[in-house]
Amino acid sequence: MVKNITLAVDEEVLRRVRAIAHDRGTSLNALVREHLEQLSQAKDDERRQYKEALAQLREMSARSGVSLGEGYKFTREDAYEGRLR
Predict the structure, then answer these.
(1) What does the pLDDT read at residue 45?
(2) Which residues form a coiled coil (predicted)?
(3) pTM, two decimal places
């Protein structure tokens, strides 16, 4: 389903973007839609990469055999000195 949106854009920006659309042989609407699709895809890629990194971190943690105990939190000193309390 396609939804309509309303945008407020500076006149000079609008003039320049219309010229870009004209040069590319497309419409302003198509340019905006393409840009939004690219932003959406990039965000999906970021989420996928985050989930993969988190899964890898959990797997490495499980393989390490180290258990810090439930509720353990690093202190600031631990983080800076690279040690566990």
Answers:
(1) 87
(2) 29-63
(3) 0.53
